[in-house]
Design a protein that fits this description.
Elements: H1 15-24, E1 37-38, E2 41-43, E3 67-69, E4 75-76, E5 79-93, E6 102-106, H2 111-114, E7 117-120, E8 126-129, E9 135-147, E10 153-161, H3 165-177, E11 179-182, E12 187-190, E13 196-206, E14 212-223, H4 229-243, E15 248-249
Parallel strand pairs: 1-15
Antiparallel strand pairs: 2-3, 3-4, 5-6, 5-9, 5-13, 7-8, 8-9, 9-10, 11-12, 13-14
């Protein structure tokens, strides 16, 4: 189950105040979809700014291989999630030596994406370069619910790039193979993406230069239990909101301006569908 490394110190509140809180409901805490952003669940690497005590993004207590929420800054060593929707994004970024910054997102079949060429630098780092000279970053995304020990849940976006994409491919394959027996027909049938709990942990891998980095590991837990139908319906509604374009994720930090991690330096051919992924 989710395991927070750092916890906010609790504040004792009188019984009278707690009662008033429930009587007042969510007064002042309800916003439209346009006012809200979905945080990202990120995987800390040795060179991540969140590990640098002198960086403004530093998170106390975090270690390489921990997951963290980009908004709440909560830390997890492992976590249970429900994927609700998956897509692949194609974003264009100005190179870091030219100032960095997001240009925009493209469709998979756009000429800008199809004309991008893979370049390998002297240090072995692969980059997809567009006709404009900007970098194309491809990421497999999973809009998900984090399910906490107390039964609460919160939405996050899990974005997998570079070597993480082989894990995303395996996860999507397992999701597509996920079946259950329908009690009404006694037949096995495919089930919705948002019907199943998965456990996320991290593992250590090494690139071809033997530089180590953390990567995702995914393991199936099982279907949402019958006593948590509210969670099932919330996950379904979350998926519908994403498809309708009613929710947006927190914008990622400049993909070309952060410190390089070992998995970004790999010089590898395009993903081999038969390559092993950590599960």
């Amino acid at each position: 189950m989710s395991n927070a490394v750092t916890k906010t110190k609790g504040v004792e509140v009188s019984t009278e105040v707690v009662v008033d809180m429930f009587e007042d409901g969510a007064e002042g805490a309800v916003f439209s979809a346009d006012d809200l952003l979905i945080p990202r669940l990120q995987l800390a690497q040795k060179m991540s700014p969140e590990l640098d005590e002198n960086d403004a993004k530093y998170i106390e207590g975090i270690k390489a291989g921990n997951f963290f929420n980009s908004v709440s800054r909560d830390i997890y060593t492992d976590i249970e999630v429900i994927p609700c929707h998956s897509r692949t994004s194609y974003t264009e970024w100005v190179p870091r030596d030219q100032g960095g910054g997001l240009v925009g997102e493209h469709d998979a079949d756009s000429p800008d994406v199809k004309s991008a060429e893979t370049h390998v630098s002297d240090d072995g780092k692969r980059k997809d370069i567009m006709q404009s000279g900007n970098e194309l970053v491809i990421a497999d995304e999973f809009y998900s619910f984090i399910v906490k020990e107390d039964g609460d849940y919160e939405p996050v976006l899990i974005s997998m790039k570079s070597s993480q994409r082989k894990v995303a491919k395996r996860w999507r394959t397992l999701i597509s193979m996920n079946k259950a027996r329908n009690p009404k027909t006694n037949q096995l049938q495919s089930v919705p993406i948002y019907s199943t709990l998965w456990k996320l942990t991290s593992v250590i891998e090494a690139n071809k230069n033997n530089e180590k980095y953390s990567n995702f590991s995914v393991q199936k837990i099982g279907p949402i239990s019958t006593d948590k139908q509210d969670l099932y319906h919330a996950a379904k509604q979350f998926r519908e909101s994403i498809i309708a374009g009613e929710v947006k994720a927190v914008q990622e930090e400049d993909a070309t301006s952060t410190k390089e991690t070992a998995d970004e330096k790999q010089s590898e051919p395009p993903l081999d569908p038969d390559a092993e992924a950590p599960f």
